[in-house]
Amino acid sequence: MAEGFRVLVTGGSGLVGKALERAVCDSEQCEGLKWIFLSSKDADLTSVEQTRLLFEKHKPTHVVHLAAMVGGLFRNLQYNLDFLRNNVCMNDNVLHCAFEAGVKRVVSCLSTCIFPDKTTYPIDETMIHNGPPHESNFGYSYAKRLLDVQNRAYFKQHGCRFTSIIPTNVFGPDDNFNIEDGHVLPGLVHKAYIAKRDGSPLVVWGTGKPRRQFIYSMDLARLIVWVLLKYEEIEPIILSVGEEDEVSIKEVAEAVAAGMDFQGQIAFDVTKSDGQYKKTASNAKLRKYLPDFSFTPFDQAVKETCEWFVKNYSSARK
What we know:
Blueprint: E1 6-10, H1 15-26, E2 34-37, H2 48-58, E3 62-65, H3 73-78, H4 80-100, E4 105-109, H5 138-158, E5 161-167, E6 169-171, H6 184-198, E7 202-205, E8 211-212, E9 214-216, H7 217-230, E10 237-239, E11 247-248, H8 249-259, E12 266-269, H9 284-289, H10 298-311
Parallel strand pairs: 1-2, 1-3, 3-4, 4-5, 5-10, 6-9, 7-12
Antiparallel strand pairs: 8-11
């Protein structure tokens, strides 16, 4: 199976790309597969010419498309048009160049923010297009939804085996730990580091009541390898821990404090917005395929992330 496999990974220097690089080194399934990890330094994927040159140079048989313009809540609110245009452009170039190059399989990464804002829970893969996404990041959300539409269109018109994954909140080493613009868990890791250093409280934005499902980047990476090699469907698949493993932001802050060995006070700034209360996703489809897949316990994954951040503080994205 491995012979002649050349896997091109876009967004290879980000959180998921770096985890995938580690997972590939550890996986027996990946022996004999050639993996090419690329970052924005290698090409501007919003340029069809640069994207096509990339495919001509590396001649991939398979693609894992992780590259995207991403940002936290406040950046999304300001730049919805930019998020829409840049992501639609990138996705269209990658899929069309993959089609032109005769790539056998493309796995693209979506996000749970693509689901309808007003919905019933738990959310599953059939509900993506059942209503508008949350207003705060509609540009990014619609761009990601279009990837699912394109996958189906490429299959119907050309028989292409392009699919997508929908991870819940990903965290781990090599994340963006920026407090203002990053996601909640890495932001709390950075805040806890500073609070411990300065002897100040760890301040959590909002009430701490919203609930989220988190997936450790190393677990997600192992699942991406499985999707690439074994998952046959065009329809997307949610990659997540179960509904029973959903945690409150307060519990996240407590896990981060423990992982950072922070003994001080945890305070809540209730003047800050909570965002959506929950976005519970069902992993029933994943469990149908992989009933025995073992996720890293949340507290252990948070501790490993904290340890990585402390060790790599000077070079970490923050």
